[in-house]
Queue: 2 jobs
Job 1
Amino acid sequence: MKARPWVGILAFQGDFAKHQEAFAKLGCFTQLVKSSWQLANIDCLVIPGGESSVIDRFVKSQQIADPIKEFAVTKPVWGTCAGMIMLATHVENDPLIAPLGLLNITVDRNGYGRQYDSFVDDGEFTVNGRTQKLEMVFIRAPKVTSVGEGVQVLGKCRKEPVIVQQGRVIATAFHPEMTNSTKFQEFFLSLL
Ligand code: GLN
């Protein structure tokens, strides 16, 4: 890994500034990404939480879906919450969203309920056979309803899969950028 990698954060909508803060704490450079040419100089990409329907609209209008898919062939991509929805192969209850299909999972958009049902809880996160506790913030989160071939479940909360990985592509149903811990960001950077 480079001493100071460039972390790109898709910045059409959502909590991209929170992701920026967390990676800056770890000494990374950050680049807000709004056009496909900005993918050229970054080492990895984050798709933040927000509103997947809005992010999807920008992805279409900026024609950045194919460039992101190409990027993901060689570089790590991490999606949180709405970002997880964008990375999935299937979105159960929103036919208008055209997900990128980089993670072989099906998600139920808002599967944990509405804003009122948002919650913080401790979950488990397993890397290289070591399980650790992680504080997880869920805000109108997607529920992973099926995990397809090639996908590993790295984390669970309330018995549900909430961290999934397929090669260099990972997704969290929750928001690590909203806690003080940077454990998850460090794991993401370890994929570089
Ligand atoms: N419910 C939102 C969606 O469907 C995701 C919420 C979030 O990213 N915190 O896109």
Note: The first strand starts at residue 6 and ends at 10.
Job 2
Amino acid sequence: MPDPASPVVTRIAPSPTGKLHIGNARTALFNWLYARHTGGTFLLRVEDTDRERSTAENVEVIFEGFAWLGLDFDAAPVFQHARADRHRAAAAEMLARGSAYRDYMTPEELAEERERARAEGRTIRSPWRDAPAPAGAGKPFVVRLKAPREGETLVEDLVKGPVVFRNDQLDDLILLRADGSPTYNLAVVVDDHEMGITHVIRGDDHLNNAARQTLIYQALGWGPPAFAHLPLIHGPDGAKLSKRHGAEAVSDFAGMGYLPEALRNYLARLGWGHGDDEIFSDAQAISWFEIADVVSAPARLDWAKLNHVNQHYIRLADDARLAGLVDEVLKSREAHRPPDLAERLARAIPVVKEGAKTILELADLVLFALKERPVAVDEKLKAALAGEGRERLGRLALALSDASDWSAEGMAGTLKRFAEGEGVGLGKVGPILRPILAAGAVAPDLASALFALGRAEALARIQEVLSHVQ
Ligand code: GLU
């Protein structure tokens, strides 16, 4: 356990696999919240020891994912691969201390020992643990930890409580492979120690590693950090979250139109909570966040709740920012983008944003305002315009061109007075006006749609329909 008086240092240590899993994003968020809550430091370590997968693009995915999510680091990233010499030096130190040994078993001998160990229900044992080095130089070896065979290893987990592992069930894990490359558990311990990490907060799929890593800390004579293992995120069906639940990477959620601040808020609630608060700011989450409030049961992704939180943040979001995001969606859909797109979006977004749960929905909701004229006249509109309808639409165009207040409220008043003047209900106005305003898309209520289109566009659409329908 770290000294309670020393400043907190946390880290997120993703491997560059080509995506940033939402579980990793949540783990990063908790580390970030805890560092910010305590006035500590939040670090990034890229675990790029798998040289095939650790391409520049895959590393970039990690940087972009955290940048998008709005999690900032307090120092430049540490690259694990570049520290292999440090890992080897630690293994050498363990050899010198007698807490590790060179194991010269051949692959065939190891396979046989593995069979025997399985049959006897025990961990594998190397004959080299207590034997002197073989005669003759150059025999290949791996370096193994000389793990205690008796007693227990205790992991005082801040989420799970004390977790006890029987040492006879922990094997002499490999520290350096035959080619001299360090293994995952060695690298993590050396890096966490040398980066001064005080709190290792990560997914509970690493709980077993915490026991192994504790043994390595002991073998090096170092004090282990505090461990906090978070329950994994499950899908709505209770299975570990994966692509088949609809999304698993941060980029999937971004592509589905979730805002980063909404995701931060929602992810904070997955496995942690402050009373019943569902919606809160970063500042609130930072001031409230305690590891003690992390729950140990797996958290389930709930799309309805996420949508609710996202809708809230879309409502709060700046309209110009939303316009930019909608434009990205339009581009990715290769949708029509009229030359005066910016003005059209500026008018339409405030009118429809209340109803949008995602940016994709917002992009659907503004479509009516982006259609080029002439708008299509379908059979239904034709029928509505037959007989009295066409004349009425003509009179409506006049009323609209005379309207003095082209706000949504003003339009509501104009439509009401128009219907009264015609001696009909609004039910007679909707069928002739709505299809023209909607132009084949979804439109908000008539008054809002008129406001969003603006006088010139609304009247031009109506005039064109009048001139096409005789
Ligand atoms: N690279 C590991 C992972 O992505 C990190 C494990 C750890 O946080 O210690 O799961």
Note: The chain is about 45% helix and 10% strand.
